[in-house]
Amino acid sequence: MSRILWINPLGTSVFDATIGAELRRVKRPTTEIEVRSLRRGPHHLEYHAYEAWVTPDVLTAVVAAERDGFDAAVIGCFYDTGLRAAREVATRIAVAAPCESALHIASTLGDSFSVIVGRRKWVPEMRDNVTRYGYRDRLASFKVVELGVHDFQNDPDLTRERLTKAAHEAVTNDGGEVVVLGCTAEYGFFEELQTQLGVPVVDATVAPFKYAELLADVAGLGWRPSKIGGYATPPRDELEAFGLAAQLATSPLAETVANPGR
Q1: pTM more than 0.90
Q2: Would you list the DSSP string of 203-259?
Q3: Residue 165 structural domain
Q4: What is the largest CA-CA distance in the chain?
Q5: Contact at 8 Å (CB) between 43 and 72?
Q6: Among the three residues 180, 203, 226, which one is the final residue of a domain in this structure?
Q7: C-alpha span between 27 and 6 (Å, rounded)
């Protein structure tokens, strides 16, 4: 049995219940899942400044998840907000994030992939992450559908229309063999899209969750983040001296809104 915490790195719980329902639908029978958002902060992360504002609370949320006995945590933004730092402060649990997880999965399903995003503003940072994760040569295209984070679920018909058009262009014109939905708010569409297109469509909410289930499993083999180099944890005495230990001991998470259960 694994316990996984999905962290919505937003100061709103608007997505918690519906993401929780989607994760409950795809989880293993033995997996327990909780979905929590932050107590404060911006309601989307479409700007780098907003990412910077929430990152301290994301790190604290990961430490809280470890303290509360979870086996893995997912940071629910396709920018992979604070992922590397989160793996530093986590000493036991696995931490997954959407872009890295989705690209790892997509790379095993086809030779190339296209990523569908909401706005042009999002592309530079996401392209940087594609490069960091080693997949720049596999990237066929980014497709922009001109929808913000909250638009995807507010008007599902419009979202479906724009995702379908963009995905069709990605496969037909750009050479994408796999389509990656590049926002965690794009949930609920991947199965219909891949039936229409005849290619895999990797959902940015399902992918990191299933990846987190895998990471929780392999931790039983001793495959946990290495602490001798890039993911080394900051020394406790420095955290104390800098006044950061007390901050990490608090919880920035709101009360659980969506607990899909066991």
Answers
A1: yes
A2: -TTHHHHHHHHHHHHHGGGT-----SSTTPPPPHHHHHHTT-HHHHTS--BPPPSEE
A3: 99-203
A4: 57
A5: no
A6: 203
A7: 12
In tens digits, what is the pLDDT along the chain, a chain of 262 residues? 899 999 999 999 999 999 999 999 999 999 999 999 999 999 999 999 999 999 999 999 999 999 999 999 999 999 999 999 999 999 999 999 999 999 999 999 999 999 999 999 999 999 999 999 999 999 999 999 999 999 999 999 999 999 999 999 999 999 999 999 999 999 999 999 999 999 999 999 999 999 999 999 999 999 998 999 999 999 999 999 998 888 888 767 665 544 444 4
CATH number at residue 177: 3.40.50.12500
In whole angstroms, give the CA distance from residue 130 to residue 180: 12
Q: In angstroms, rounded to a whole number, what is the distance separating the alpha carbons of residues 127 and 136? A: 8
